[in-house]
Amino acid sequence: MNSSIVLIPDLEVLRTEDLTVLETGHTSSLILLKKMKKEDREIALNPTQFRKVGSTKFIDLRTLDETDEEVYNTVYYKEVPVVTGNMDETLIVTYSPKYKAYQRRIRDRQIEHAEKIINTPGRKRKGKKSE
């Protein structure tokens, strides 16, 4: 039996256009990165052997110039064969420089907000009061 595994870091990441990957006629599963076995997670996170859609050339993500608009707007992927028991599966790992930048902006804003709260004297903080 053939099936595909689509690796996503968080269920909120899944967008409508991602679902086209799942409509291949094979059984598909979604796996959260943090739920994977350590060995499989290390293979998935290895920045080598990615490809652009429609290309057979392998790309090392560390060599990408993410300031280039074409690179920034491209989604890269790699397929990792996984054999579990009598089932052959393919792990599909994707990387998007654009989504990486989006996540970085969110994280930076959260840090700025936390620093502002910490550095504002006299500001009341929400939470439980200690007795």
Question: What's the helix-strand series?
Answer: EHEHEHEEH
Number of helices: 4
Beta content = 25-35%
Helix content: 25-40%
Q: How much is the radius of gyration in Å?
A: 20 Å
Look at the structure and give the mean pLDDT.
76
Fill in the keyword field for this structure.
131 residues, 5-stranded mixed β-sheet
What's a concise summary of this model?
By secondary structure, this protein is α/β, with parallel strands linked by helices. It has four helices and five strands. A hairpin with a 2-residue loop joins strand 4 (76-84) and strand 5 (87-95).
Can you tell me about this structure?
- This protein is α/β, with parallel strands linked by helices.
- It is built from 4 helices and 5 strands, in the order βαβαβαββα.
- It has helices at residues 19-22, 38-45, 69-72, 97-119; strands at 2-8, 27-32, 51-52, 76-84, 87-95.
- The protein has a 5-stranded mixed beta sheet with strand order 2-1-5-4-3.
- The N and C termini lie far apart (61 Å).
- Residues 1-6 and 10-25 have low confidence and may be disordered.
